[in-house]
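Hi both,

Apologies for the delay on this - the queue was longer than expected. I finally got the S-adenosylmethionine-bound model through. Below you'll find the protein sequence and the ligand SMILES exactly as submitted, and right after that the structure tokens for the full complex including the ligand.
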Amino acid sequence: MPQETTTWQERITSNESVWNRAHDIHPVLNPLYDESVRRILGRAAVADAPRVLDVGCGLGGWIFKILEFRPDATCVGIDMEASFIERARAEAEQRGLSDRVDLRVGDAVRDLPDERFDLIVCAGLPEAFGGLEPMLEKLRPLLSPQGRMIIGQGIWEREPDEECLRVLDASREDHGSLEETIDSIAHAGWAPVYGHKSTEQEWDDFVWACVDGLTRWALDGDGAGAGAETPRVLLAVSEYRHAWLNGYRGTLGYMTFVVRPIPRTWQPLVASYELARRTWTASSP
Ligand SMILES: C[S@@+](CC[C@H](N)C(=O)[O-])C[C@H]1O[C@@H](n2cnc3c(N)ncnc32)[C@H](O)[C@@H]1O
């Protein structure tokens, strides 16, 4: 008999399970309203007929907004989760967009295309690269010199307590404060040019979409119905909701930045200015 490596709670509340069910209610799998996505895209406007890469594209939430916002854009989307890519392809087909989007199952680190893009979106997966700075380093060669990158990144809005770290299965070092995060971006040789901090209401709407999606599965079923699984799914939903309300609500924040690469030749000079500013700020009374 195959060895079971995950508990039933983990199966039900795995990211794949939750996001597949939240997507119909909340297409972008991060705490962002459509109007925020549009505003961020407006601030990341690039060349005519832009080539766009979305790394960790999920179910295509950002891609479909980009294709709508920029009718001249074409996109490549990569995600490791085959079920997400399958659904995103079906949606592209249904919307008549298949010729403008190339959706691939692949790993964000190993399967990146050998091509340059005008805009790269990488929202909500710095841990796949081992952190924000390695992510910026890895994606730099894929961005054209005048290009823009949109990155989505968790931040600590206040110091996390033990319970928060426990429910998130995280450590303090996994995220920085807003200031620490911006310093990391600058340290990696990038110029942040826009930032959107998800509001409490955007966070609530996103988490409630996840809770609602799972509850629909429990009570209404996915065609076949949750059946005998219903009580288990409801219990898992309750734990999921509890972890949010009593664990990380108001502590884990989410920032979306638009960043531009600083040419390599200027990086040492800019880094020394940044260091001087930080030292000066730290030593100011
Ligand atoms: C928080 S979701 C965000 C999805 C999408 N960027 C959005 O904003 O709607 C993170 C996504 O990254 C994908 N992912 C995580 N690690 C990955 C990796 N190593 N390679 C490719 N995709 C990965 C997950 O499958 C998931 O779809």
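Main takeaway for now: The longest helix spans residues 200-220.

I'll put the files on the shared drive as well.

H.
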